[in-house]
Amino acid sequence: MTTALRPEAAAEKAERRAMAVVDTDVHPVPRSNDELREYLEEPWRSFEFDTPERPIDNNTRIAQTPNGGVRVDARPPGGGPPGSDPEFAAQQLRKMGAIAYAILIPLASARPRENPEREAAMCRATNSWLADTWLSKDNQNDMYRGSLRVAIDEPRLAVAEIEHWAGHPGFVQVAMGPSTRVPLGDPMFDSVHAAASRHGLPLAVHPLTAPGTRLLTPVGYPTYFAEYHSEMALVAASHLISLVFNGTFERYPDLRCVIIESGIAWATPLLWKMDRHWQRFRGAYPQLRRPPSEIVAERVRFTTQPLENPTRARDLVDMLEFAGIDDLFMFSSDYPHHDTDEPAWVLGHLPPRLRERIMGANALNFYGLPVPEEG
User: Fold this and answer.
1) Helix, strand or coil for residue 220?
2) How far is CA 201 from the centre of its chain?
3) What does the pLDDT profile of the chain (375 residues) look like in tens digits?
4) What Å distances lie between residue 38 and 138, 148, 285, CA to CA?
5) Name one GO biological process term (predicted).
6) DSSP notation for 162-180
């Protein structure tokens, strides 16, 4: 039997929920690739570590920012790359803005490979490493939650990874790079949608810089990093439109999705456009029984980084308030990358009535995180 909280205790719990800051995009990395060795299954362990033909991995990308795209001050005092020391990362995150929870999204070790079996093996190794370190023995006062990496372009392998980790308390979502075969609403991904729904894990779409078709934009290949970085929202929008108009959310009532590191200023105008199209041509979409904006408000969240900083900051504030969807956005920093958005800077761009929701309450609700204890 559940015991009701006394009114004073309920009020205190609500206040803690309102004050909590949740960072929904933090990138941990191993101290070195060798740290993954024990987690990598054969034959890929030998292929990666023991043969003279060890492959040149796919770190050859389009031009990046200086220092490999990471903050210089995020390098741990004990050595290793930025984002490799759980304790130091926690110190920096809490110093930035009293962050109560950080959602971890590994990138480097789980980048796309030249074949799905090798990519799935690296995803399994990355997930195992994360589970044993940041999510268990190195979890800083239960601060960290993790993302399951999957080889999304091979749904069979992606589903196997979800099923392997289903029920693990540390993983709160399924993370993928934007697939370039077809948009995510295509029925080829239905088995992934079903598995994620069954286990209560949102799909997390996060951009990746890797060579080949992974850099493809809706109009071709970019030349410069600035092009790719500016166009991330276009790829995210393509997947969102596909999920909505293919009726994916209608077929899977428990499916949720979070669009990460693609900004937010574009989201509400896109919803208006989708609603207008649905209103005029709804007969063409019998699988879509509700306005797109209603579905998105219920099932989809967007993380704030990189938060657009328009010439008139008030433009963004007006757009957020006019949308009237208080739960749509969640704070993210992208730590330890060079373009980290610190909490104080983001707060300065948000309308007062939405600050508590965007900085923490929305994420606590979306991920079902426990309310942080006082202090």
Assistant:
1) strand
2) 12
3) 444 546 555 555 555 555 789 999 999 999 988 899 999 999 999 888 887 665 545 454 555 666 778 888 999 999 999 999 999 999 999 999 889 999 999 987 777 777 889 999 999 999 999 999 999 999 999 999 999 999 998 999 999 999 999 999 999 999 988 766 789 999 999 999 999 999 999 999 998 766 556 666 777 777 777 777 777 888 899 999 999 999 999 999 999 999 999 988 889 899 999 999 999 999 999 999 999 999 999 999 999 998 887 555 567 667 766 667 788 999 999 999 988 999 998 988 888 888 999 999 999 999 999 988 765
4) 18, 18, 50
5) secondary metabolic process
6) HHHHTT-TTEEEEEE---S
In residues, how long is the chain?
Answer: 375
**In the chain, domain spans:** 19-366
CA 127 – CA 148 distance, rounded (Å): 6
**Neighbouring residues of 320: CB distance < 8 A, sequence distance ≥ 6:** 264, 268, 329, 350, 351, 354
Token duo for residue 237 = 């929008």
CA distance linking residue 23 with residue 35, whole number of Å: 25
Read out DSSP for 299-351?
A: HEEEE-PSPP--SSHHHHHHHHHHH--TTSEE----BTBTT---HHHHHTTS-
- Fold of the domain built from segment(s) 19-366: TIM Barrel (3.20.20)
Using the CB atoms, write b or e for 257-273: b if 16+ within 10 Å: bbbbbbbbbbbbebbee
Residue 220 zone, left/alpha/beta (φ > 0; ψ -120 to 50; rest): left
Beta bridge pairs of residue 301: 258
Distance between start and end Cα atoms, the chain: 29
DSSP-assigned letter for residue 369: P
3-state secondary structure 1-52: CCCCCCHHHHHHHHHHHHHCEEEEEECCCCCCHHHHHHHCCCCHHHHHHCCC
Q: Which of 265, 325, 341, 317 is nearest to 292 (CA)?
A: 325
| Residue 302, phi then psi, degrees to nearest 5 | -120, 135
Name the residue with tokens 């330890």: 336
